[in-house]
Specification:
InterPro entries: AAA+_ATPase, ABC_transporter-like_ATP-bd, ABC_transporter-like_CS, P-loop_NTPase. The chain is an alpha/beta fold. It is built from 10 helices and 14 strands. α3 runs antiparallel to α4 (about 130-145).
């Protein structure tokens, strides 16, 4: 198990991440979401010691990665902004990664390059943004590290390649030997992939969602009332994620039979349950308030 404990990183006297703690096991696909600039990439860089943490630890099976750096080999991350790959050809990259990742699968690396029509003689820097992202994923999968961090892996890829990558990630965790921590702006992509989702807000870990549990407890409901007055029940127990005229779409984080009965008692003109998505949770939890202030 990989454990992040009370991790903090300050840059220019500002906390970028603060008091971040979570566990991550092989066999899990964990999504990481948050607004731009909230610290997702900083978290990854601090976990892999590209940045020195101001506080906290990262440990694998109780081995502190800073004190025992050999365990860092079990964690894979390519920084998409700062890396050494630009001047090298694709067929040269395994030479570097085999030095760190002893189980690097060079035969599978070549096979995946061919599968996605990538030419081994091409320089990394000559590739499009999407193709560089694809090469990063291929290196991650063939490293055979048990913990793999992917930072915006679907950015710039066409839908067919995205689907292929998603399938490969799911296949990789099937034997419970690998786990993935994935950040993405595409919440729909994470919704279909992730077992859990970590939500960063204001430099801290605001929520650690088990998506199956959330869908058992939460409900997204479309409502229309006879007048424009918003019932106190909604203000107290739900968050408004969308409004169109008199149509309200709200999320109840903890929906109970008692709440359902109270809603029915308000005699709404329309009351319809809608599918709950990760984007709905993102909207509900990253707004500055419950959303009802916009109705004033």
């Amino acid at each position: 198990m990989l454990r992040v404990s009370k991790l903090r990183k300050t840059i220019e006297h500002h906390d970028i991440i603060n008091d971040i703690s979570f566990d991550w096991r092989p066999g899990e696909i964990v999504g990481l979401v948050g607004r731009n600039g909230v610290g997702k990439t900083t978290l990854f860089r601090t976990m892999t010691h590209q940045y020195v943490a101001d506080q906290g630890t990262v440990a694998i099976d109780d081995h502190d990665l800073l004190a025992e750096p050999a365990y860092q080999r079990q964690l894979f991350f390519i920084d998409t902004q700062y890396n050494f790959l630009a001047n090298y050809r694709l067929n040269e990259l395994p030479d570097f990664y085999r030095l760190v990742y002893r189980d690097f699968d060079q035969a599978r690396y070549r096979e995946l390059l061919q599968r996605f029509n990538l030419h081994a003689g091409d320089q990394y820097r000559q590739l499009s943004k999407g193709m560089r992202a694809l090469v990063n994923v291929i290196l991650a999968l063939t490293s055979n590290a048990p913990y793999i961090i992917l930072d915006e892996p679907f950015d710039g890829l066409d839908v067919i390649v995205r689907e292929n990558i998603s399938t490969m990630v799911i296949d990789e965790v099937a034997d419970q030997q690998k786990g993935f921590l994935i950040s993405s702006h595409d919440l729909n992509e994470l919704d279909g992939l992730s077992d859990r989702v970590l939500l960063l807000k204001d430099s801290r870990l605001a929520h650690d969602y088990n998506l199956e549990d959330v869908r058992e407890k939460a409900r997204k409901i479309q409502l229309v009332f006879k007048d424009k007055q918003i019932p106190d029940l909604l203000k107290q127990h739900s968050k408004l994620i969308r409004v169109s005229g008199r149509v309200l779409v709200v999320v109840f984080p903890a929906y109970t039979p008692e709440l359902a009965a109270q809603l029915q008692a308000l005699q709404p003109v329309l009351m319809e349950e809608l599918p709950l998505t990760l984007e709905d949770l993102f909207r509900a939890n990253l707004s500055q308030d419950t959303g009802y202030q916009m109705m004033k």
